[in-house]
Each structure stands twice: as structure tokens, then as C-alpha cells.
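Work through this:
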Amino acid sequence: MVQNFSTMWLAFLALAGGLSLLFFGGEMLVAGASRLARRLGMSPLLVGLTVVAFGTSMPEMFVSLAATFQNHADIMIGNVVGSNIANVGLVLGVSALLMPLPVRHSQVYTELYLLLAASLGVAAISWFGVFYRPFGLIFVGALIIYTVQAYRGEAKKNRENGNSPDNSGPSMFKITGQLVVGLAFLAVGSDFFIDGAVDVALHFGVSELVIGLTLAAVGTSLPELASSIAAVRHGEPQILVGNVVGSNLFNLLMVMGVTAVIKPFSFAPEMMVRDLPAMIMFSALLWPIVYYRHGVNRSHGLVMIAGYVCYLLLLV
């Protein structure tokens, strides 16, 4: 009894410590990304879609690789799919309640279509039963092409508009250091949080897939949530939207793609009828909201949170 109490106390301590590191890491990452955007002449939206999205997807990458090497494929898949659902239903929903998020369809239509295509692609691959190495190579290749094209498009736009980088702020060395420290806090904070969350879940006898879809997914989505709240505090809604859309894109193309290249994995049968359709639904939900409403407002945020709560109830 004493040992169980001690273990649970350590688990909750890990949760609290992880949350603290995630908060400070998110603050540093968004502040550094905003300064990087100004210094390189990049739009905050592109920085959110690439730099911040890549950084906040690192916890998913670390957790997925560790789960794969330890032969816990259900935790890996649940982590990615559950994170994408949580990023829209929880992160974007909560952020929209705090602050309306204006963004035009013309600014993110490529990313929204690519995200929906990647989500449908994962669902189609699941019918093969195994995510084979060639599929992983295709996903990673698509991400590389997207990133290069996005940066080239931004550079061309800056040349046409006569925009030039702003070199009046902190040096690149200081900005890079801020980004690295922010990412380190996010990675370590996520690790502490997930260790504590998994210990709590296992104590109550929850399956690995449900752990991946809920606790691990929410845990690895906390960097996105921390970064998004930081973006609200700094008045950078485009970094926030770019972070959510870009992170979901990186989760599918980079995390799943790299994991499959290293070690192909199989899908649990229930995912094809419950979790993958939910992921596609949340991904598809963004398109009409951005297209017709030019952004995400508080009513959309309520719908997203309600949808996420319904999904959790479905898991229960």
C-alpha cells in the first residue's frame, strides 16, 4: 500500500513538473519563432507552419520511436492519431475561446488540402493492415517537397513585395539559443508528463491503445497547447493556427513516415472504424470554417471542444 502510494505520488509530481516545463518552453519557442520570422522576413504563419510545428512535433517523434523500438506499436499509432484529434478539438478549440483566430483560406489552402490528403492516405493504408516502408518514404518525401516549396513561395512573395528582413532585433545566435532551449523544455517536459500519465493509466489497467489515444496524445499535444497559449499572450494568432495545422501535417508525414521507414508497423482493427474516421472528420472540419468564415471564432471553438469530449466518451 505504501509502495503504491509512493509510486502514485511520484507520477503526479512528474505530471506537475512536466506541465511547468511545457509552459515555459512554449513561451520561449513562440517568442523566438516570432523574432525569427521578423529577422528572416518570413510571415508568422509560415513560421508556425514549419519551425514551430516541427518543434512541437518532436515529442510525438520521440515517443513514437521509443514505443516502436519497445514493440508498443499501439501506443505509437494512438499517439499520432490521438494527437491530431487533440490538436484540433482541444488545442485549437481552447485557443479560439481565448482569442478569435483570423486566417484566410488563401493563406493555408495548400496545407489544409495536404493535411486532409495525408489523413485519408493513412486511412487507406490501414486497410493493408501494415504501414510498409515504401509508404513511409512517400510520406517523408512529400514533407520535404512541401517544406522546400513553402519557403521558396515565401521568398518569392517577399521579393515581389519588396519586403526585407528586420535586423534590428536580437542576433541570430540569441534567437537560435532561445529556440533550442524552448524545444529542450518541451521535450523534457513532455517526457516527464508522459511518464507520469502512463504510470497513472497503467495503475488503473487501461489498454496501450487507449493510453496512446488519450494520455500520451494529450501529453504530446501539450507543447502545441503551451505554444498556442503563448501565441495568444503574444498576440500572434497566425503562429497559433500555423502551429496546429503544421503540427498535424508533421505528425502524419514526419512521425509516421520516419517510424515506418525505420520499422513498419501494423494497425489495430478498431482504429479503422473509430479513431481514423474521427481524425479525418477533425481535419476536414477546418476547411469549411476557414473557407467560409475566414478564421476560427469562439463558437467554432465550442464545437471543437464538444466534438473532442464526445470522442473521449466514445473511447470510454
Q: What stands out?
A: The mean pLDDT is 82. The longest helix spans residues 2-40. The first strand starts at residue 101 and ends at 102.
